[in-house]
Design goal:
By secondary structure, the chain is mainly alpha-helical. The protein is built from 5 helices and 4 strands; from the N terminus they run H-E-H-H-E-H-E-H-E. The strands form 2 sheets. Strands 1-4 form a two-stranded antiparallel ribbon. The chain has a two-stranded antiparallel sheet with strand order 2-3. The longest helix is centred in the middle third of the chain and has 14 residues, at 73-86. It is elongated, with a radius of gyration of 18 Å. The termini are far apart.
């Protein structure tokens, strides 16, 4: 009997425990570590305290900004990842940067690690005092 089960594991310890258990069983498995953005790394990411570049404003639209025109790292990441998913640009570790993303992120790179995006975004945007 074949059954496919999809699991979401949120920490490395649980993954290692599961893989150890599976190793000693007859269950075959394969897995993809999907490090798509986890904002829990920094509570500042949810605060609307960044002034985006004009290129990024054009890319993400006003709906991702607060009434003062500020953006949070969370909302910027959601916008980028949603675009990446919609345009088949995401892999498990990287996002391909098409011309729209390269312009919005002011980079000449063609790929970027997903976990490096928040740092890159913060380097582009001006931070305001909350």
């Amino acid at each position: 009997m074949d059954i496919k089960i999809t699991l979401t594991i949120h920490n490395e310890y649980e993954l290692k425990s599961l893989l150890e258990f599976l190793k000693d069983s007859s269950i075959t498995s394969d897995y993809v570590v999907n490090p798509l953005y986890n904002h829990n790394n920094n509570p500042e990411y949810s605060k609307y305290i960044y002034i985006p570049t004009s290129e990024f404003k054009h890319f993400c639209g006003n709906e991702n900004l607060n009434p003062r025109g500020y953006v949070s790292i969370d909302s910027a990441m959601k916008c980028i990842l949603k675009y990446g998913k919609r345009n088949n640009l995401l892999s498990s570790l990287y996002i391909e940067l098409d011309s729209n993303l390269r312009e919005a992120l002011k980079t000449e790179l063609y790929t970027m690690k997903i976990n490096r995006l928040p740092e890159h975004i913060m380097s582009l945007f001006e931070r305001v005092d909350a």
